[in-house]
Design brief:
two-stranded parallel sheet; 11 helices; 233 residues; disordered C terminus; four-stranded mixed beta sheet; 8 strands; alpha/beta
Length: 233
């Protein structure tokens, strides 16, 4: 089955049989709306089996695959793409037509070790911290996008309702200085820019010289970066 997906090319040494994984899912009583997790995805047989079962009984099972090897995109994800869209040369009618469905392929960015961040020993890049804060605050994933400053006040992302600002440099001396502080002048610029677009603003930074009581009428919420990231300097 694996070779037919890749036009007869042997790309994986010992792929599991799709029917074997299907039998395992049936034996485990995986329901039509359940989620199947495979933490060692390999060639992607689990996804193939889940999609095949959905095709067979009209189920809506979902799968989560995790693969750390460098073939995650070229073999694991590529196999899923092909079985979803159809494999013209396959002897299996369902596979030839395509099993249908969809999936998202995501990669992890550089790791952020909390203890090293808090000691100031290994501060994350601007884009890595921005992506983490955006996801924490809003649930939005930046995917493979590089989140960089769009202006001198630290704007890095905006949606229909909110602008997100990050005052940050991966440098303890910078974080201990005044350049990253939210003061009244900067707050008024941020407020004006966001309100012009009908948005509120969330500002992440190492500190502020203006209270939240004054920021709230400006449409700004301030979120302080952990003191330990810069206070150790």
């Amino acid at each position: 089955m694996m070779k037919s997906v890749f036009d007869g090319e042997r790309r994986f040494d010992f792929p599991k049989a799709v029917v074997l994984v299907e039998d395992v899912l049936r034996f485990a009583n995986v329901g039509p709306n359940d989620i199947v997790l495979d933490s060692f995805a390999g060639s992607g047989t689990t996804a193939h089996a889940v999609l095949a079962l959905n095709k067979e009984d009209g189920g809506n099972r979902k799968f989560i695959l995790v693969e750390c090897e460098d073939y995650a995109d070229t073999i694991t994800a590529e196999r899923v793409r092909r079985v979803i869209g159809g494999v013209p040369g396959s002897k299996n009618a369902a596979l030839r037509e395509g099993l249908g469905g969809s999936f998202a392929y995501c990669t992890l960015g550089e790791p952020m070790e909390i203890e090293e961040m808090l000691s100031g020993d290994a501060l994350p890049s601007y884009s890595a911290l921005a992506a983490y804060l955006l996801h924490t605050a809003s649930g939005v994933s930046a995917g493979g996008a590089e989140l960089e400053r769009r202006n001198d006040d630290g704007l890095f992302y905006g949606d229909g309702a909110t602008d997100y600002y990050l005052l940050y440099e991966p440098n303890v001396e910078w974080l201990c200085g005044n350049e990253g502080i939210l003061n009244e002048e900067r707050a008024r610029r941020i407020s004006a820019a966001s309100r012009e677009k009908g948005r509120r603003a969330i500002v992440f930074g190492p500190g502020k010289y203006i209270g939240q009581r004054d920021l709230t009428p400006m449409g700004i919420t301030f979120c302080q970066l952990p003191y330990e990231m810069h206070g150790s300097g």
